[in-house]
Amino acid sequence: MNLKKPLNALLAAVMGAGLLLTGTANAQKYPDKPISLVVPFAAGGPTDTIARLLATQMSKSLGQSVVVENVPGAGGTVASAKVAKSKPDGYTIYIHHMGMATAQALYDKLPYDPLKDFEYIGQVADVPMVLLGSKNFPPNNFKELEAYIRANKDKVTMANAGPGAVSQLCGLIFQSRLGVRVTTVPYKGTGPALTDLVGGQVNILCDQTTQTIPFIKDGKVKVYGVTTPKRLSALPNVPTLDEQGMKGFDVKVWHGIYAPLGTPKPVLEKLNAALKKALTDPDLKARLDSSNIDIVPVAKQNGEALKSHLDAEINRWGPIIRKANIPD
Ligand code: MLT
Q1: Which atom of ligand 1 is nearest to the CA of 165?
Q2: Residues 6 or more apart from 152 whose CB is under 8 A from it?
Q3: Could you tell me if the CB of 171 is within 6 A of ligand 1?
Q4: 122 forms bridges with which residues in the sheet?
Q5: Is ligand 1 within 6 A of the CB of residue 174?
Q6: Structural domain includes residue 234
Q7: Does the residue 10 lie in any domain?
Q8: Cα–Cα distance between 65 and 57 in angstroms, integer?
Q9: Most-buried pick from 45, 218, 304, 320 (CB within 10 A)?
Q10: CB–CB of 99/45 below 8 Å?
Q11: Alpha-carbon distance 36 to 44, whole Å?
Q12: Cα of 26 from ligand 1 centre, angstroms
């Protein structure tokens, strides 16, 4: 009788049980060191701001620091690839916006699969966008902007944060609706892009409301329209792009929290509980409210809802992006 096979199987079973026990024990101790929250864009921008608000609150309930790590590049895809390959131990988590869905149609081949290479912790918040111009840029309203771009398309510069960034998506839908392409200036995030817009180094930018409302109210930038179908309560006098002729213009930026595939379930549960608690914090809510950012309902603050939303958004944006002939 060959005893080698059953012995090997027994050994494998004992080792498997050991690993399982270690995993469970680790999950019980989790977290016992700081957690890295990866942000796919530069510091000081909209994604970074939401990440830092969440990190502060999640640290409180997890009893460990949650440290923001900015990994900008290629419209967020550098960070997504890095997180997909990170150790699935709960010490690397990830915040990304709807670029997680749109990148699929913008790149021929991504080094990760948004629907297969991650664990899904929950949705966070929806952020409107605004189309902005620098103070020294001649057009004063949307009609003038359209006419100016048509007459000066070779001179006009538009900032964005690379293919996969929502600033790029919004900007290219705008240009495709106008039927005119301008010169793109890529940044590592809209934080640095907004700085250059205020400084007049670049002409226009489509950015989220997270940082931009005070700049609009203080007259440091011009605003040409809101990207959502309804006007914003923080900017009641700013018309939507839809009402100014770009019918159906509807871009609102959703966000999710992810972990690398294989992160243990008990760890994901702890992270989800910390996320949910963070989203009830009055200071965090007040900060988001002031920027017209909507925290998603509790029913969407979980992994299943995030994954099915991501799936639906990949299907929604693919045809729109291909129709707008977006590669840039
Ligand atoms: C950022 O955080 O810099 C932005 O979300 C980039 C973008 O997608 O436009």
Answers
A1: 8
A2: none
A3: no
A4: 257
A5: no
A6: no
A7: no
A8: 10
A9: 45
A10: no
A11: 17
A12: 35
Closest CA to 118 of 99, 145, 100: 100
**324: pLDDT confidence band, cut at 50, 70 and 90?**
confident
47 lies in some domain: yes
Tally of domains in the chain:
2
Range of the domain at 265: 34-127+253-323
pTM check: above 0.70 = yes
Measure 206 CA to ligand 1 centroid, in angstroms: 10
Asked whether residue 161 is assigned to any structural domain, the reply reads yes
| Best CA proximity match to 251, nearest among 177, 304, 158, 185 | 177
Residue nearest to atom 8 of ligand 1 (CA): 165
For residue 270, give the CATH number of its domain.
Answer: 3.40.190.150
Around Cβ 153, how many Cβ atoms within 10 Å? 14
Q: pLDDT for 126-174, tens place per residue?
A: 999 999 999 999 999 999 999 999 999 999 999 999 989 999 999 989 9
% of the chain exceeding 90 in pLDDT? 86
Task: Report the amino acid identity of residue 114.
Answer: P
Q: Are strands 92-97 and 204-208 parallel, antiparallel or unpaired?
A: unpaired
> Domain holding 188: CATH number?
3.40.190.10
